[in-house]
Structures are given as structure tokens and as C-alpha cells.
Amino acid sequence: AASESLSFRSSVERLLSGQGSEVTVCDVGLEQSKPATLRKNVTYIVCAVIFNEKEEVLMVQEAKPDCYKQWYLPAGRVEVGESLEEAMKREVKEEAGFESEPVTLLLIQEQGPQWIRFIFLAKVTGQRSHTLLVLKGNLFTPSP
After folding, report:
1. Are the CB atoms for 111 and 38 separated by under 8 Å?
2. Residue 20 lies in a domain
3. Half-sphere exposure of 29 toward its Cβ, with a 13 Å CA cutoff?
4. What distance in Å separates the CA atoms of residue 73 and residue 60, rounded to the nearest whole number?
């Protein structure tokens, strides 16, 4: 039991230091697997969770017609040749007007083989180029 506890602890320490963990078992046989091809049979989506100094979370209003004006975290598709981090920074810049940096990967979600979403905790690293609005009750007022 003590050696299992030590092994678990060292695994957690490796994960927290960004080293990841070794995958030794796969629950899908090779005959069932197929290569993932970005924009052909799989879509990678990045999403950023960004808090300000008041612990408010950054949300953006969607511009697409099917979900126009709905509030979301800054998110979007990874382009071919782009890293996950580059895509996250680009999406935050396009949608919220901020330069940003990922802090850590919070969550990976998948919906079958169709899409995989990578959710990052991120921080603002530069000035904003858009006017932001702050939700107060049911009203939106310009932030100071």
C-alpha cells in the first residue's frame, strides 16, 4: 500500500509539473482506430477561461446566426498547422481583443470521434482592443 501511495504521489507531481503521464493501455483495438485528420474527420476546439482581478469570468457574445448574441467563453476551431496554444491565443484576440497566454490545460472533452475541445485557464497579457461590458444583474454597463 505504501509503494502504491508513493507511485500515485509521484504521478500527481509529474502531472502538476507539466510532464504528463505515460499511457500504457488503450481500450480501443488497433483494428477499430483510424488516424485523426483535422477538418476531415475530427475538429479540435480550444476554449479559454479567463478571470479578472475581481474573479469575474470573460464571456463573449456569439456572432454566428444560429446562436447570435448568446454568451460563451472565447472559443473556436484549431486551424491546420496551428498548435493548441496558438489557436487559443488567436481566438481570445479575435473574440475579446486581448493578448493572452495559457496558464494550464483544465479539461479535455470529446464528443465521439467528431470533435475534441481543449479548455485552458488563461491570463490576459496585453491591452484590450475592444470595449468590454460587465454583467450587473440583467444589465450590461461599460466597464471602467
Report:
1. no
2. no
3. 2
4. 6
For 32, the grid coordinates are 477499430
What is the greatest pairwise CA distance in the chain? 58
Strand partners, 120: 48, 105
- Domain that includes residue 114, residue range: 34-142
User: Is 114 domain-assigned?
Assistant: yes
Q: In what order do the strands lie in the sheet with 43-50?
A: 75-77, 43-50, 115-124, 100-111
User: Per the domain annotation, does 7 fall within a domain?
Assistant: no
**pLDDT per residue as tens digits for the range 1-56:** 666 666 777 777 776 666 666 666 655 555 665 666 666 678 899 999 998 888 88
pTM: 0.65
CATH code, 40: 3.90.79.10
For residue 127, give the nearest of 107, 97, 103 by alpha carbon: 97
Interval 59-95: pLDDT, tens? 888 877 888 888 899 999 999 889 999 999 999 999 8
**23 falls within a domain:** no
| Secondary structure letter of residue 58 according to DSSP | P
44 three-class SS: strand
CA atoms within 13 A on the CB side of 84: 20
| Number of domains within the chain | 1
